[in-house]
Every structure is written in structure tokens, then in C-alpha cells.
Amino acid sequence: MARVTCIVLFIVAISLRSIQADDSNDSEPDIDLDQIVMECSEKFDIPFPQIPAALRAANAHALKPCFWSCCFMKVGVINSKGQYDVDFTLDLAKKMLGRQDEKKVEATVKDCESVNDAPVSDGNAGCERSLLLATCLLDNCKKNFPEIFGH
After folding, report:
1. Cα–Cα distance between 45 and 55 in angstroms, integer?
2. Is there a contact between 62 and 53 (Cβ–Cβ < 8 Å)?
3. What is the CATH number of the domain that holds 121?
4. Does the residue 36 lie in any domain?
5. Where is the signal peptide (predicted)?
6. Is residue 46 part of a domain?
7. DSSP-assigned letters across all residues of the chain
8. Predicted structure pTM score
9. How far apart (Å, rounded) are the C-alpha atoms in residues 109 and 87?
């Protein structure tokens, strides 16, 4: 079944894909995506329908920067120092998607590593960097997975 919460948490754009999840799949990470999205959307007062709408429009700015940080930190995509953890994200992608579009997924994940070099004013909070990351991932996914966006 398609899971909107995967859309949000699994690196934003890769997650826009309709991932078929089988609860018995041992390779799927042990992350309660539904719970994370719900907690973060409530914490930052974001109505749930706004989340998939922002993703379909590839507009990271439609959601609060700290919402992204909340989701990314709970999953581990952004670490406790407010930095994008490329290696963890790539490992997570492989666990969730297997070999499906492996080269495009890897390119999408690695192309955003430069967000760690961008100056931010919120330090370890990771809000600004998370917004930069969400924007980068969405932009790269539009390029690498145009079918997701109807192009």
C-alpha cells in the first residue's frame, strides 16, 4: 500500500514514489514513519493534508523548516549536530528500496551532500539545513524521477 508518511520521511523525494510495503519484509527499517510524521506535524501545527500537497508540488518551503528537521532527525537523516548524514541516508534508501533505481537513488542522495557546507544560523537545531536538504532532494528527484511529478 502507498504510504504518505514514507513520502515525507524517506528523503522527501525518493519517498514520493509509491513504495509497496510488506509488513513481513525484514529489510524494511524499523522506523514508525506514521508516528514520526504525526508527532512532527502536530508539534509544528501542520495540517496533514498540507504535507503530501507540498511534496507533490515539490515545494519544501510550504512546510515549516523545523518540521523537516523534526522528521529528518527522528529518522537519522539529519544527525544530532544538525548535519546531513549521507551514509546513513544511503543505507536507509537501500534498505527501503533494495536495488530499485539504485543509481538514481544514490545520485539523488549524494548530490545534496553540499548542504552540510551551507552556513546556517540555527546550529544543531538543523531546521535551516533540513529545509535546504528537503529543497535539494526535491529538486534532484524532479530531475532523476520526473515520472513522480507527472513530467
Report:
1. 17
2. yes
3. 1.10.238.20
4. yes
5. 1-21
6. yes
7. ---HHHHHHTTTTGGGS-----TT-TTS-S--HHHHHHHHHHHTT--TTHHHHHHHTT-GGGS-HHHHHHHHHHHTSB-TTS-B-HHHHHHHHHHHHTTTTHHHHHHHHHTTGGGGGS--SSGGG-HHHHHHHHHHHHHHHHHH-GGGGT-
8. 0.81
9. 9
Q: Is residue 59 part of a domain?
A: yes
pLDDT at res. 19: 33
Q: Which amino acid is at 25?
A: N
Residue 42 lies in a domain: yes
In order along its 151 residues, the chain shows pLDDT tens digits of 233 334 344 544 344 333 333 344 444 555 667 778 889 999 999 998 898 888 888 899 999 999 999 989 988 899 999 999 999 888 887 777 667 777 888 888 899 999 999 999 998 999 999 999 999 988 887 787 777 666 5
For residue 113, count other CB atoms closer than 10 A to its CB.
16
- What is the extent of the structural domain holding 90? 4-18+31-149
- Give the C-alpha separation, 110 to 147, whole Å: 20
Distance in angstroms (rounded) separating the CA atoms of residues 82 and 94: 23
Residue 97: per-residue pLDDT: 67
Number of compact structural domains in the chain: 1
